[in-house]
Amino acid sequence: MTGALTVIGSVANLIVFESAREVKVGFWEYFRVGAPLAVLLIALSTAWLAWLG
């Protein structure tokens, strides 16, 4: 549902990480931010769909 959960969750994430070679971000560093963000986005999407339908 969302590519924010992990670095490898989206092709766009991989492209950005490949092009940003000066900045080093590890899997767990990204996951620490990506996991709460993914949960928030899923909750907001669920609430939006419930409101619509």
Description:
The structure is a single chain. By secondary structure, this protein is an all-alpha fold. It has one domain. The protein has 2 helices and no strands. The longest helix is centred in the last third of the chain and has 26 residues, at 27-52. The mean pLDDT is 82.
Task: Output the keywords.
53 residues, mainly alpha, 66% helix, elongated
Backbone shape: elongated
Percentage of residues assigned to helices: 55-70%
Which segments are poorly predicted (pLDDT under 50) over 5 or more consecutive residues? none
Number of folding domains?
Answer: 1
What's the structural blueprint in terms of helices and strands?
Layout: H1 11-19, H2 27-52
Describe this structure in a few short sentences.
It is built from two helices and no strands. It is mostly helical.
